[in-house]
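pasting input
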Amino acid sequence: EVQLVESGGGLVNSGGSLRLSCAASGFSFNTYWMHWVRQAPGKGLVWVSRINTDGSTTTYADAVKGRFTISRDDGKNTVYLQMNSLRAEDTAVYYCARVLGGGTCYAYWGQGTLVTVSS
Amino acid sequence: QSVLTQPPSVSAAPGQRVTISCSGSSSNIGNNFVSWYKQLPGTAPKLLIYDNNKRPSGIPDRFSGSKSGTSATLGITGLQAGDEADYYCGTWDTSLSAGVFGGGTKLTVL
């Protein structure tokens, strides 16, 4: 069974940093692109970032470019999101998601981890 | 403001059929596959439709998807109380080099 478990969320001051983790199990982690998607309270889904199978290609939404860094450790079956220079508008539930195959459809989602940035 | 446009809400009676539209452009829907997600309050989204019109294992055939040009549509037949949720369309935007979603549609089963 595919499982994605996020951790690392919490309350942080504006300008601070957090590192989110997403531990994967139940599939061959090193063969799938992984994504982060966030959802502000009461708002819709917003794509944040993606990383390819070997970590050599990363892509970011304009809103987080230069502040967030996605990475992966295939030995630990874990994808990370390092978030620096956090702003109030980064407050959201952050989900990691695994694509279905080679596309950008998100077949599996974690339960999400809440990041609250206090201004 | 979302890149993909969905109606904020739709409603229909139990047993009826409802459709949810998703409008985009040539850089997203027009040249990429569309997927649809259902989200219940306080839970993670769940994949309903991928590659425009395919259903993952376990999704009933009451749910269908279609795409024409730069628009996509989710159809739900035989509405049930459990279908009441938020629905999102999503795809990749080649020009933005980013994933994009619609703003979400709240389905109310009357």
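fyi The two ends of chain A are 40 Å apart (CA to CA).
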